Amino acid sequence: MKRFKFVLNEKEMPTSWYNILADLPEPLPPPLHPGTGKPIGPDDLAPLFPMALIKQEMSTERYIEIPEEVQDIYRIWRPTTLHRAWRLEKALDTPAKIYYKYEGTSPPGSHKPNTAVAQAYYNKKEGINRITTETGAGQWGSALSFAGACFGLEIKVYMVKISYMQKPYRRVMMETWGGNCIPSPSPDTQAGRDMLAKDPDCPGSLGLAISEAVEEAVGRDDTHYSLGSVLNHVLLHQTIIGLETKKVMEQIDEYPDIIIGCVGGGSNFAGLFLPFVKDKIEGRKPDLKIINVEPASCPTLTRGPYGYDYGDVAGLTPLMKMFTLGHGFIPPPVHAGGLRYHGMAPIICHLLKLGLVEARAEHQLGTFEAGVTFARNEGIISAPETNHAIRATIDEALKCKESGESKTILLGHSGHGHVDMAAYEAYFAGKLKDYNYPQEKIEEALKDLPKV
Ligand SMILES: *Cc1c(COP(=O)(O)O)cnc(C)c1O
Questions:
Q1: d(CA 136, CA 170)
Q2: What pTM was estimated for this model as a whole?
Q3: Is the CB of 386 under 6 A from ligand 1?
Q4: Whose CB has fewer CB within 10 Å in the chain, the N or C terminal residue?
Q5: Separation of CA 130 from chain center
Q6: Is the pLDDT of residue 333 over 90?
Q7: Is 262 in the pocket of ligand 1 (CB under 6 A)?
Q8: What separation in Å is there between the alpha carbon of 140 and the centre of ligand 1?
């Protein structure tokens, strides 16, 4: 009998997260203070984050225990399932074995609550009752609103205006969980008012929404800020994905040759691959291939310069060493998916620089085509973000068909696309276009990088 699904039982769910900072062959370049240009300390971050998260951000302890209260909420949907994509393999006529770890069964439909729940917990524990954040496509805002409901926190979400208008259902999800969602740029902050004065029709960007959420959190004692990707502690919380995958693959005596995932800020994919990259660093799996897939319209890892940049438009956040399209980046409105952040998790950038992982960019028409093939074979209608990883997975499986190799491919499936049907509709109607990010803009970004 063929087996299609592999899942740990609840008792086998990992009870610690894995911290890659303990095992990096060279230390991560530190974040710098935006004013002084010196490495930041815990006190610099205290207006924004609870101390427990600041410690995790800087910790080099290899395993960090998941609090019982967080485990109990994880168990609403975790452990998640590892699937064998038999039907997709057959449709592609490939000798490759394709597995995918599916994070779409969480209440908000993606991997994001893995960190949202942990962040809400630590804030609550330190007496904070209110959190601001930003959201692009609305996935993060809904995950944090869900987490706020779990712990009784007030959540205020600045949502990139173009998505606020194009994706009303994510907003209604946030409201159902008790979150308060407003379009960014907004009149509630200086950063928002400045942008509205310059351009009243500004469609917004993640970088700008971050400026608004950070500004409000810094200005109020009862309020902290929360970020859904990029930072070390976010990637740490997401390692539950990779730890579960490794454990269940051990049980069936499998190990991937290739791991593929989509990257916006990098959290879902790092969460999957970090426990595996450890084996590569330690020389046990020197040939393991790890492919970060990003949109060709926001080619941070494949074309951006590597240097220190701000995490937001207004320059309020610490400077992080990363590949970046410049903090002034406004994504092209023709792009239907998420994955539109100008920077990338410093951990992923560092691993790319060290040659431990690689990156690839995909055009959106090809990603939707892949997503439709996946839906017609595996059934799941995937988030447009995830479709980028599916495109690369199908291409790797087709390469195996040509070479006759039976490689084991592990796909990180970050979420379902049920709230993104407008993007699929636009694709079927022929309204989506491919967009190549112009070279002048890359050069502009390089000029805009702060001097450190
Ligand atoms: C937010 C999101 C992403 C991109 O964020 P990462 O931090 O790069 O993981 C990818 N897929 C889905 C479904 C998302 O909601």
A1: 10
A2: 0.97
A3: yes
A4: N
A5: 23
A6: no
A7: yes
A8: 8
